[in-house]
Design brief:
Elements lengths: L1 H13 L9 H4 L9 H13 L4 H14 L2 H14 L4 H14 L1
Helix pairs in contact: 1-3, 3-4, 4-6
Length: about 100
C-alpha cells in the first residue's frame, strides 16, 4: 500500500492540469467521513517521502477525503495494483487537488 501511495504522489507531481468539466464529480460521491488513520498516515508519509512538504501533502489528502469516499479511494488503489493504472476520473481528482493546494 505504501508503494502505491508513493506512486500516487509521483502522479500528483507529474500529472498535467486537466481542463474542462469535472467528470469525476458525477462518478465519485462527496464524502463527509474521515478515512481510517492507516490510510491517512500512509498517504501523508509517502507524499513526504516523495519530496513534498507536510502542508501540501495534507492539503492533497484533505481534498481527496472531501471528494471521495474511502471505498472509492481503495478501489482506485486496487485498480492500480491489478492493472498498474488509475481511472481518468481519479487523475482529474488529483489534478483538481493540485490546483487547490498550490
Amino acid at each position: 500500500m505504501k508503494k502505491t501511495l508513493l506512486i500516487i504522489t509521483a502522479i500528483v507531481f507529474t500529472t498535467s492540469i486537466t481542463s474542462g468539466q469535472h467528470k469525476w464529480q458525477k462518478r465519485f460521491s462527496k464524502n463527509s467521513k474521515p478515512y481510517r488513520s492507516e490510510i491517512t498516515y500512509n498517504f501523508i508519509a509517502s507524499c513526504i517521502e516523495g519530496g513534498a512538504e507536510v502542508d501540501y501533502c495534507s492539503c492533497l489528502f484533505d481534498y481527496i477525503v472531501k471528494n471521495m469516499k474511502e471505498a472509492e479511494f481503495l478501489k482506485e488503489e486496487t485498480k492500480y495494483l491489478l492493472q498498474e493504472e488509475f481511472s481518468d476520473e481519479f487523475f482529474e481528482v488529483m489534478s483538481a487537488a493540485r490546483l487547490e493546494c498550490n
